[in-house]
Design brief:
By secondary structure, this protein is mainly beta. It contains no helices and six strands. The chain has strands spanning 12-17, 23-27, 35-38, 45-47, 51-54, 61-66. The protein has a three-stranded antiparallel β-sheet with strand order 4-1-6, with no helix packed on it. Strand 2 (23-27) and strand 3 form a beta hairpin. It is globular.
Length: 67
C-alpha cells in the first residue's frame, strides 16, 4: 500500500487477509484521483476492480494485483 505507487490498471485485486476497517483504492475510471473506500472486505476474495493505487490507509493485507 502506498499513496504514490501506481499499480494498475489491473483486472482486479485479491485480498488475502481481511480487515474490519478499510480497503482504500483509487480507480482508473476516476480521473480526479478520489479515494474509494470499501469496508469489511472478505479474506480470500477476488474483486474485479480496475485499480490505480492501493492507498496507505488500507488496513487489509496480502493484497495481490491481478493483471
Amino acid at each position: 500500500a502506498s499513496d504514490t505507487t501506481v499499480v494498475g490498471p489491473t483486472r482486479g485485486i485479491y485480498v488475502g487477509t481481511s480487515s474490519s476497517a478499510a480497503l482504500a483504492l483509487v480507480m482508473w475510471t476516476d480521473n480526479s484521483n478520489t479515494t474509494v473506500t470499501f469496508k469489511n472486505v472478505i479474506a480470500g476474495t477476488y474483486y474485479p476492480f480496475n485499480v490505480k493505487k492501493v492507498m496507505a490507509a488500507t488496513t487489509a493485507s496480502d493484497i495481490v494485483a491481478v493483471y
